Amino acid sequence: MKQRIITGVVAAAFFIPFVLYGNLPFTLLVYAMATVGMFELLRMKKMAIFSVPGLIGLLTVYMLLMPDNFAAKVQSITSYSKLEFLVIAALLLLIHSVIVKNHFTFDEIGFVLLSALYIGIGFYYLIETRDAGLQFIIFALLVVWSTDSGAYFTGRKFGKNKLWPEISPNKTVEGFFGGILIAVVSACVMQFIYPFEKPWFILILVTIVSSIFGQLGDLVESAIKRHYDVKDSGKLLPGHGGILDRFDSLLFVLPLFNLLHFVS
Length: 264
Fold this sequence. Notes:
The chain is mostly helical and 264 residues long. The chain has helices spanning 2-21, 23-44, 52-65, 68-78, 82-99, 106-132, 134-158, 173-193, 200-227, 243-247, 250-259, and strands spanning 162-164, 168-172. The longest helix is centred in the C-terminal third of the chain and has 28 residues, at 200-227.
């Protein structure tokens, strides 16, 4: 626990200034984190990032991460949209499977493409949400962190019923609802201090749905790790694991914010 707290404080001290400043430094940091996240997924599958599939997957992530204004410039020069670049990546991976005589399989092609989408889309919305305004990214981080903390402490104090033992044996139903409750309380406190120009019922509804999605994002990453029989996605953050261990909830919450048109 001591190591976990120290790592959390150091990581926050490093991350928060980038969040506050935004702009190009924040975008470059997100690209770096996405690179590590893609590496973590490929390593679970025992695939090298410095391989043809690994590099195609990484370039696909970089393409998906492009902020809208930059993607528009790229499209004006190349006449290719993000979707068309994704199609090109899929075709290149299929061609590679033929060249290596099926040593790189159709299943592995699917893994690389889905990994790139999972990482690319989630971190893309991290950039876009910050560009929409500091308030939105603070709110997203608050919902995720308060949900995690609320679920952890509520689960430890009151947890008796397992939520999904086949995937994450330590999570409880009581912790699940406790995380939602603490997230709502935290959102209400933020609304008093740093108010959104949105109705209260919208704020609370978005908080509840986001808290649920954040916990589902955590469970998704737990399911991936359990499938590939690894404890943590990486070792970058002692006591916490890897980048995906820390950002798994945000990778679900941030797209949700935008799909609900909460970010504007």
